[in-house]
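Per your request, structure below.
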């Protein structure tokens, strides 16, 4: 029925007249407090020292990131990460090619070349794709359709003394009568930084990226856009892993079309992103006793069709989307780098994961409140086409490992899942709004969780995916208040998430569904719960002086084994002061976290994914920025008192001889200077 309704609406859309041209509206000022969504743009995306987008996202309350080096930080929203987050770049999906996630999706987005990054905490919509049980990160780059005809340009450069060696970026925007063009280019070199004790931390890398986008307005046929990009990270060193990454390259292509009609808009997108990744343990570090190299590929393609329309009291968004991902990773070994002829393992044995979904979401006013309802149905299919292939006469195939640990060598899997959303927003007064959200969402295991096959001589060094993992099912309740006054604003959000079939990385101890008790890293479904609170407040103390405070806390519990969930951020927050003077804009930010004692750090009784009980910390950052005509100078001092500290979130290690997690210290004091020039016609 849904498909018939969508087809009928598309047919009526095609019969309507050419799209109306809407006037540009510029809104100046601060929007009302929103406890669930925050956007980063402009100068917030051009911080001089950030190694990648995930490092910038730490500035958002409720968002943390796990560090393995200077690049490839893993974002965590409300205690959820990886496949539990929907990360979209211009509507498309990028899936990294590293089994140990040296290249999470956010690592491919160069912040200086992005217009807006929207962080959605929790489940507020079902239209961002399947999954997203913890939230979404939406990266957007736009053509200058709302600008006056002409050309705009921006050039920037920066340097620092602890990590960043130099960076440069540029952007060119052009708007004609019926066409538009955009070019972005950037390059940067980061060296190893030092922590507060002056110890070198392996974290350097080189980065370069280019992005081009063009579009044309074709009258009644709508607007067509084409985008291409290439992003490369070279010689990335990782203190928190047994290997480094000499190469990480993403090539992307995107086609988009949209057309307005009398009561809404229809749009379609198609995209393909190809990632090449190489990691080894000899190119960027002393040669070990056994050399290893892992070339890997991840190709992701997809499309979506959407219809937005007003029908009576309802505003509807209807659509369908598909995503297909193929991943292949092979580990080679030999006595030295010149003799890497032996296939040691098919880490990803030609893993293929497909998803297709249809969704409908409607919003309407009821009295003074606003109601949102949504329904989504997804079909998932997965297979590992090379699971039966053994890496040599003496090696075991991935399928043999699956049978050894889970009792079945069948790598094919299919399932269908239904998600739903009910959300209500109600003004309680002229300045206070309350909201409540109830959702059921699900997500499928990724290629590593389902199909990884990493053997090792010692069983405790093995890492084996589970082809039989069930869909992870989340039932969430989200409640909050937002207050907006004349000179202050505040928001409060609390959430609770009951999870059935939570996908847990654990150690083999003969649990239900696990046949062996040898300490290997395995995956299994458990029951879990998460709950948390986020508080934010802002005061305009004077026309030129403002103060902002925020705090977030989350608690995760493995209900099947009655122990804490690993990798949960502790209570954390920040207090920031901003002062705008004739001499520039001055900022001071005190950020910190409490001690994290709820850990799962034992490989004997738990997963051992937490490195330790992490001490709390407090760090002061200072900043200054000033415009000089078309120029802007920006100075930042991070960790001004040179504190030695580490975030609790660490990354698991893919070293076959040392699978224990490693916690990487954050940078010590760093001074960074950036310059920017903008011009427009």
């Amino acid at each position: 029925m849904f498909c018939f309704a969508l087809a009928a609406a598309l047919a009526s859309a095609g019969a309507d007249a050419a799209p109306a041209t809407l006037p540009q509206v510029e809104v100046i000022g601060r929007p009302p407090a929103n406890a669930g969504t925050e956007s980063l743009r402009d100068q917030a995306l051009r911080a001089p020292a950030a190694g990648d987008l995930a490092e910038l996202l730490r500035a958002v309350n409720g968002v943390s990131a796990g560090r393995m080096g200077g690049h490839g930080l893993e974002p965590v929203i409300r205690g959820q990460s990886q496949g539990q987050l929907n990360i979209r770049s211009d509507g498309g999906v990028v899936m990294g090619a590293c089994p140990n996630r040296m290249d999470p999706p956010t690592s491919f987005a160069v912040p200086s070349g992005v217009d807006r990054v929207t962080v959605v905490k929790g489940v507020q919509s079902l239209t961002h794709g399947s999954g997203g049980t913890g939230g979404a990160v939406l990266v957007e780059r736009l053509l200058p359709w709302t600008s006056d005809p002409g050309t705009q340009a921006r050039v920037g450069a920066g340097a620092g003394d602890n990590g960043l060696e130099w960076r440069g970026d540029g952007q060119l925007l052009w708007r004609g009568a019926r066409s538009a063009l955009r070019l972005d280019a950037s390059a940067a070199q980061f060296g190893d930084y030092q922590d507060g004790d002056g110890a070198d931390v392996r974290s350097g890398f080189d980065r370069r990226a280019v992005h081009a986008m063009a579009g044309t307005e074709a009258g009644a046929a709508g607007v067509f856009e084409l985008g291409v990009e290439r992003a490369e990270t070279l010689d990335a060193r990782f203190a928190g892993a047994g290997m480094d990454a000499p190469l990480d390259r993403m090539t992307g292509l995107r086609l988009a079309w949209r057309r307005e009609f009398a009561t809404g808009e229809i749009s379609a997108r198609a995209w393909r992103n190809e990632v090449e990744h190489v990691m080894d343990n000899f190119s960027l570090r002393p040669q070990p006793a056994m050399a290893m190299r892992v070339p890997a590929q991840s190709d992701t393609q997809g499309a979506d069709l959407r219809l937005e329309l007003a029908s009576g009291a309802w505003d509807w968004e209807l659509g369908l989307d598909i995503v297909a991902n193929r991943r292949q990773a092979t580990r080679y070994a030999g006595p030295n780098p010149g003799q890497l002829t032996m296939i040691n393992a098919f880490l990803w044995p030609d893993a293929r994961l497909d998803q297709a979904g249809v969704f409908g979401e409607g919003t309407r006013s009821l009295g003074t409140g606003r109601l949102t309802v949504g329904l989504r149905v997804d079909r998932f299919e997965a297979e590992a086409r090379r699971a039966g292939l053994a890496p040599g006469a003496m090696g075991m195939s991935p399928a043999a490992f699956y049978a050894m640990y889970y009792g079945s060598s069948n790598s094919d899997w299919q399932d269908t899942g239904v998600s739903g959303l009910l959300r209500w927003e109600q003004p309680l007064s002229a300045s206070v709004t309350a909201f409540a959200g109830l959702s059921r969402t699900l997500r499928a295991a990724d290629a590593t969780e389902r199909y990884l096959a990493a053997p090792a001589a010692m069983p405790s060094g093995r890492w084996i995916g589970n082809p039989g993992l069930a869909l992870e099912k989340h039932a969430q309740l989200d409640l909050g208040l937002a207050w907006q006054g004349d000179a202050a604003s505040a928001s409060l959000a609390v959430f609770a998430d009951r999870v059935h079939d939570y996908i847990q990385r654990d150690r083999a101890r003969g649990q239900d569904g696990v046949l062996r008790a040898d300490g290997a890293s395995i995956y299994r479904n458990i029951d879990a719960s998460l709950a948390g609170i986020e508080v934010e407040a802002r005061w305009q103390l004077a026309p030129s002086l403002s103060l902002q405070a925020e705090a977030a806390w989350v608690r995760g519990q493995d209900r099947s084994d009655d122990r804490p969930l690993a990798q949960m951020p502790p209570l954390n927050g920040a207090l920031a002061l901003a002062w705008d003077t004739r001499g520039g804009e001055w900022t001071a930010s005190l950020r910190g976290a409490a001690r994290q004692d709820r850990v799962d750090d034992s490989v004997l009784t738990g997963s051992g994914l937490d490195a330790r009980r992490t001490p709390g910390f407090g760090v002061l950052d200072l900043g200054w920025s000033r415009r000089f005509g078309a120029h802007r100078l920006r100075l930042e001092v991070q960790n001004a008192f040179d504190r030695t500290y580490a975030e609790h979130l660490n990354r698991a290690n893919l070293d076959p001889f040392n699978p224990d997690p490693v916690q990487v210290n954050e940078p010590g004091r760093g001074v960074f200077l950036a310059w920017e020039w903008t011009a427009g016609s």
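Confidence is low (pLDDT under 50) at residues 1-33.

Regards,
D.
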